[in-house]
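Hey L., structure's done. Input below.
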Amino acid sequence: SCNNNLTSNIANICLSSSSNNDITNNNVSNNIVTGIHLYHSSSSHTLTNNIVNSNNGVGISIESSSDNNNLTGNTVNSNGYYGVGLWDSSDNSLTNNSVNSNNDHGIRLSYSSNNTLINNTANSNKYDGAYMSFSSNNTLIWNNASNNRYGIYLSSSSSNNTLMNNTVNSNKYD
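Output:
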C-alpha cells in the first residue's frame, strides 16, 4: 500500500495475520478509529514515511504477537489516544518517527519485549513521551521526549531495558 490518501473513513489500513507488506507514503488522517492497525501475528512489515494524524483512536497500533515490524520516518501527531502503541509484540524497530501532541502517551509499550526505539521525537503528548508497562529488554537510544507529563516512564515490572543518550527535558515531572 503506497501513496494513498485515506481520510474520513471508519476502517483504514488494517493487516491481520499477514506478513512482508510495505506501507509507504500514505496519508491516514481524520478517521473514526485507528489509523494503521497490525494485529493477530502481522509480522515483518515496513511502515515508512506515512502521515497518521488526527485519528480518533490510536495512530499506529501493533498488537497480538505482531513482531519484526519496522517503522521509519512516520509522522504520528494529534491522535485521540496513543500515537504508537505496541501490545504483546516483540522485535519491532521504531526509528526517526515524529510522535507529538497525542491525547495520551506518545509511544506506549505494554507486554512487549526486545523492541528498539532510536531517534524518535515524542513531544507535547498529554501523558508520557514514551511509556512502558510489563515490557522488558527494550532499547531506547537518542530519543527526544519533551513537554510531556514524564519524558520516559517505566512502570509495572518493566525491567532490563536499556536507555542511552535520550534527551528528556521540560516535562512536568522530570
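The mean pLDDT is 95. The CA atoms of residues 17 and 42 lie 5 Å apart.

-- N.
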